[in-house]
Specification:
By secondary structure, the chain is α+β, with helices and mostly antiparallel strands. It is 16% helix and 28% strand. It is built from six helices and 21 strands. The strands form four sheets. Strands 1-2-3-6-5-4 form a six-stranded antiparallel barrel. Strands 8-9-10-13-12-11 form a six-stranded antiparallel barrel. Keywords: Hydrolase, Membrane, Protease, Transmembrane, Transmembrane helix.
Length: 425
């Protein structure tokens, strides 16, 4: 082998003559040049020839077939079309999935900056809530709930008529003057005046100087059950438009409350919905958006009223009782109280039940055969622990209602039916 750096131009030899040596005579014994002069592949002047092999001669490996230049060529157009369509489909599918992912996850924007969230295509979320959902009920009731402002105090009330009557607690309006006003859920305000109050039931009615109001729907407090879901509305600690959620924890929980010489009794609806100072007078609403109670009292572990706070023990006046008392106040300026016609012993008794201290001669208890000293143990199936239970449960009923009474006289147990009446005050 050589790289040809010293090659010289020589005249071609005569036909059949060997090539002259290049670069001098061949080296004896060299494997590269021993047969170079007789090798036609190394002779650039060796004539070419086409040799046709005799069919009878054994053949070596068959040469590769040479394509016929005149044969028709196979078309690649269908393959290219299929590839193009596949690429378009893949690109379109990928783009669509990418767009949907970006919209759902809130990524991407057309302004080139960082976008948080996506453009809302639907109405506000609150407008999409079902009417029977908690949000739907809250949206329905809130326009009828007002914050009651009295000198030095804030409470809650709810509209019960389109012409402006509002029910609240008596202790909310206690000490009210001409400066009393209410604030609606939309922030608008209106003056209010006291129509009437009933301290012993802790209910009052005020009139708002505004017409065309939306009144709440009143339910039936006798049809509720322990475990029913409820919403409490109000202005706890002056936080207007507050809604809390819970259940009915107990029924006919007898309450004795009050101060300054006024004792209030009622058989309350107990709930674990959060209720705090400022919720007083607000509505307790069932899953149908109907008012079934008036939030009034809480139990607390605080040492004073100013330290009192929610611990999941709140009590509401049943709406059946509140409706009757409020209607009396609107119609007559004062409320009737339902009585059994007997005076009972309250507090500090060792006897289980309500002991009758005295019985009015012409009252319902006397008419049913009861006497002084009898101990009432059940009223309409409710077990009585003391005299407070009897007073609170009797006031739950309308005047004229007939209830069954079980009482003990000495060692004997008696039963009677008593028709309750309204007091004469």
């Amino acid at each position: 082998m050589t790289d040809g750096w010293n090659a010289r131009s020589l005249p071609p030899p005569a036909p059949g003559q060997p090539l002259p040596p290049v670069g001098g005579p061949p080296q004896p014994g060299s494997p590269w040049w021993s047969d170079a002069l007789a090798d036609p592949w190394r002779d650039p002047y060796a004539p070419t020839a086409v040799v046709v092999q005799n069919p009878g001669t054994p053949a070596g490996p068959a040469p590769e077939a040479v394509p016929d230049p005149d044969a028709p060529r196979r078309s690649y157009t269908p393959i290219l079309v299929i590839c193009l369509v596949t690429a378009l489909l893949a690109g379109g599918l990928g783009g669509t999935l990418g767009y949907l992912f970006a919209v759902k996850s809130g990524y991407g924007n057309s302004g080139g900056g960082t976008a948080l969230g996506s453009t809302a295509q639907d109405p506000p979320a609150a407008a999409n809530r079902a009417p029977d959902s908690l949000a739907g009920i809250a949206a329905k009731v809130l326009p009828s709930v007002v914050t009651v402002r009295v000198t030095g105090a804030i409470g809650t009330g709810f509209v019960v008529s389109a012409d402006g009557y509002v029910v609240t607690n008596d202790h909310v309006v206690e000490g009210a003057d001409d400066t009393m006003s209410v604030v609606f859920s939309d922030g608008s305000t209106a003056r209010a005046e006291l129509v009437g109050r009933d301290p012993q039931s802790d209910l009052a009615v005020i009139k708002v100087a505004k017409s065309g109001l939306t009144a709440v729907a009143l339910g039936n407090s006798d049809s509720i059950a322990v475990g029913d879901p409820v919403l409490a509305f109000g202005s706890p600690l002056a936080l207007r438009n507050t809604v809390t959620y819970g259940i009915v924890s107990a029924l006919d929980r007898t309450i004795e409350a009050g101060d300054a010489g006024t004792t209030r009794y009622y058989a309350a609806i107990q709930t674990d919905a959060a209720v705090n100072q400022g919720n007083s007078g607000g509505p307790l609403v069932n899953a149908d958006g109907q008012v079934i109670g008036v939030n009034s009292v809480i139990r607390s572990v605080g040492g004073s009223e100013t330290e009192a706070g929610n611990i999941g023990l709140a009590f509401a006046i049943p709406i059946n009782q509140a409706k009757r008392v409020s209607q009396d106040i609107i119609d007559h300026g004062k409320a009737r109280r339902t009585v059994i016609g007997a005076e009972v012993v309250t507090g500090g008794t060792s006897t289980s039940g309500a002991r009758l201290r005295s019985v009015e001669p012409s009252g319902p208890a006397a008419a049913a055969g009861m006497k002084s000293g009898d101990v009432v143990t059940k009223l309409d199936g409710h077990v009585l622990e003391d005299g407070t239970d009897l007073i609170a449960l009797v006031r739950k009923y309308d005047p004229g209602a007939t209830v069954s009474v079980e009482y003990r006289r000495g060692t004997k147990t008696e039963t009677a039916s008593v028709t309750l009446v309204a007091d004469s005050n």
